[in-house]
From TrEMBL:
Keywords: Aspartyl protease, Hydrolase, Protease, Signal. Belongs to the peptidase A1 family. It comes from the Eukaryota. Pfam families: Asp. InterPro entries: Aspartic_peptidase_A1, Aspartic_peptidase_AS, Pepsin-like_dom, PEPTIDASE_A1, Peptidase_aspartic_dom_sf. Residues 1-25 form the signal peptide. PROSITE patterns: ASP_PROTEASE, PEPTIDASE_A1. This is Aspartic peptidase domain-containing protein. SUPFAM superfamilies: Acid proteases (SSF50630). Residues 75-416 form the Peptidase A1 domain.
Length: 420
């Protein structure tokens, strides 16, 4: 028996709230020190050099299937860590940047419910780094330390990869009540939002970036197709180094990743944020507050479309005026499952992509209202959730209608509707 679908925020790197609390001047969560990229700061994008010998292993498939646990709306990726390799099931999270597994002392009592644990003394390739930290997500806090070890993802093996080992956890990275337990997190965010970056302003290459830097994948990108499982089953895929255009219903178009400005003026890429210019429901424009921008985090580790309360209320007013708010979610009549008015989030087209596309393009993410509604037994709920402590997030219940390409050299995000 499948559990009813639970709309629940799961993962958002604490990094941002840390930076936000340092930036005391910020009074409203909608006034972000994020900036649209200008050409003068684009030099920051080339922080590691292109390896000319790429694509030597072109024939090795970069495709890794994802497990969607339908009951939870989480997407998981299987990896193995250490020598001999030990298998783990991790939340695929483009919203955070550390990849972690639970250590042998992280028992259920210490907050790690699964029985798959990593014992450093049992891995001959384990390297301790003496960097101990606390990392946070919207729904969980973890304590642990960085280490280096071998990790295998799909057909690729990376030795001496920088990883995180968790010793205890409060809260939960996912709803862990189903038969499938998730062990940790696969951080596919940008390095700027890692725990190391937040604590020491230091950087490292995430797993997709290492795959490229070591010449194992041909392109500096990964693409994600989430899909929706009919039962708890493998659904969706991530492809490292390539895009499966066959999955897309139209040409993939690109938008720019926004830069973040630290309180001291330092401008950098924090994570997969892009600034939307407009939200529309049918022919209604939703007015954001004046002088605010809408930085959306493209986050496979969060379920809902997360918006600040004032904006969410305005959107819902247009989308389903008779919706009944229950704390952070909106209940709607199930007749909305037949509503085909379009809901759109519009982004300015990329100025920085190396893919040929018109310079004054708008990239529109459009889904019919019925795709914004989810059934919970006999009642229905919007996939919109409010959170005033977080940036707006495009979570997987919305993203699964699209193919998403994450390019970490151009710092662009490619989007196209997924084939039905
Ligand atoms: C890669 O695949 C192509 C065609 O699919 C084939 O011609 C070529 O020999 C393969 N290369 C290697 C190194 O296996
Ligand atoms: C790579 O992975 C795919 C699917 O995960 C598998 O079918 C294939 O045999 C693997 N090996 C190579 C060399 O591509
Ligand atoms: C661990 O990995 C990081 C990042 O790749 C690297 O800088 C560091 O030198 C490695 N540490 C050891 C002890 O090998
Ligand atoms: C992590 O460690 C700090 C300091 O020892 C402690 O205050 C905090 O409660 C710990 N967090 C968790 C999740 O156990
Ligand atoms: C982080 O390091 C860079 C140099 O790599 C420096 O320019 C910047 O000011 C530092 N950021 C902060 C917030 O200290
Ligand atoms: C470039 O890729 C080759 C082949 O994969 C690898 O042997 C080499 O170490 C890489 N060079 C750099 C600078 O990363
Ligand atoms: C793109 O959208 C903006 C509003 O967000 C509008 O002013 C502009 O005309 C649009 N451009 C095109 C080419 O449609
Ligand atoms: C409101 O939300 C709470 C907590 O999620 C839930 O227990 C309750 O049943 C909901 N009420 C309605 C009317 O949906």
């Amino acid at each position: 028996m499948l559990k009813p679908l639970v709309i629940k925020l799961s993962i958002l790197s604490l990094g941002l709230s840390c930076l936000l609390s340092q930036a005391q001047a910020l009074s409203s969560p909608l006034k972000f020190p994020l900036s649209r990229r200008t050409h003068s700061t684009n030099t920051l994008t080339k922080r590691w050099s292109k390896n000319k010998s790429h694509a030597t292993q072109k024939n090795v498939s970069g495709l890794v299937p994802l497990l969607e646990n339908k009951a939870l709306q989480e997407y998981a990726i299987s990896v193995s860590v250490g020598t001999p390799p030990k298998e783990f099931l991790l939340v695929l999270d483009t919203g955070s940047s550390d990849t972690w597994v639970p250590s042998s002392i992280c028992t259920p009592k210490a907050g790690c419910p699964s029985d798959r644990r990593f014992n450093p003394s049992e891995s001959s390739t384990y390297v301790h780094t003496r960097l101990d930290y606390q990392a946070g997500y919207l729904t969980a806090q973890v304590n642990g330390s960085y280490f280096n070890d071998t990790i295998t993802v799909g057909n690729f093996t990376l030795d001496n990869q920088f990883l995180f080992l968790v010793n205890d956890q409060t809260g939960s990275l996912a709803d862990q009540t189903s038969d499938i337990l998730l062990d940790g997190v696969f951080g596919a965010g940008l390095p700027g939002s890692s725990t190391l970056s937040n604590n020491r302003n230091e950087t490292f290459l995430t797993i997709p970036m290492e795959l490229y830097a070591r010449g194992l994948i041909p392109e500096p990108l990964f693409s994600v197709f989430l899909g929706q499982a009919k039962e708890s089953a493998w659904s969706g895929e991530i492809i490292f180094g390539a895009v499966d255009q066959e999955r897309a219903a139209s040409r993939i178009t690109y938008i720019d990743v926004a830069q973040f400005q630290a309180p001291n003026g330092y401008v950098y890429f924090n994570n997969w944020f892009s600034l939307a210019s407009q939200i529309e429901v049918g022919s209604n424009y939703i007015e954001a507050e004046e002088d605010t921008s809408l930085p959306f985090l493209f986050d496979t580790g969060t379920d809902a479309l997360v918006l600040p309360t004032d904006l969410a209320d305005k959107v819902v007013q247009s989308l389903a005026p008779d919706a009944i708010k229950n704390d952070t979610v909106y209940n709607v009549d199930c007749s909305y499952l037949g509503n085909t008015r379009p809901f759109r989030i519009i982004f300015p087209g990329s100025q920085f992509t190396t893919v040929k596309q018109s310079k004054n393009l708008n990239v529109t993410l459009e889904v019919p209202v019925n795709k914004m509604v989810t059934r919970l037994g006999s009642t229905c709920q919007l996939i919109i959730e409010t959170n005033d402590d977080s940036y707006p997030i495009i979570g997987n219940l919305f993203l699964r209608h699209f193919i998403t390409v994450f390019n970490f050299e151009d710092y662009t995000i490619g989007l196209a509707p997924a084939k039905q």
